[in-house]
């Protein structure tokens, strides 16, 4: 095993007290989005750009289970309206 020098975390990579996750208090009812897609067309003998619908298959419920952060408290989730969703209750048996 290779030794690794222990050092303090650099100031530029520390999360501030006002840090929030991207999912914090956002609406989660999006069915998907449209994005450009490059596909080959034999009619023009080359590539064309078409617009394709990308279905949203990501989870829409909060996945926070209370186990993250110091002492089981994740400060990035504090005050979020989605915290403690039905998903968390189902997996924890509560």
Average residue-wise pLDDT: 79
What order do the strands of the largest sheet run in, or round the barrel if closed?
1-2
Number of helices: 1
Percent helix, as a range, is under 10%
CA-atom Rg in angstroms: 21 Å
Structural domain count: 1
- How many angstroms does the end-to-end distance come to? 42 Å
Uncertain regions spanning at least 5 consecutive residues: none
Q: What share of residues are in beta strands?
A: 15-25%
Q: In sequence order, what are the helices and strands, one letter per element?
A: EEH
Structural overview:
The chain has 94 residues and is mostly beta strands. The protein has one helix at residues 86-92; strands at residues 32-41, 46-55. The radius of gyration is 21 Å and the shape is extended. A two-stranded antiparallel ribbon has the order 1-2. It has one helix and two strands.
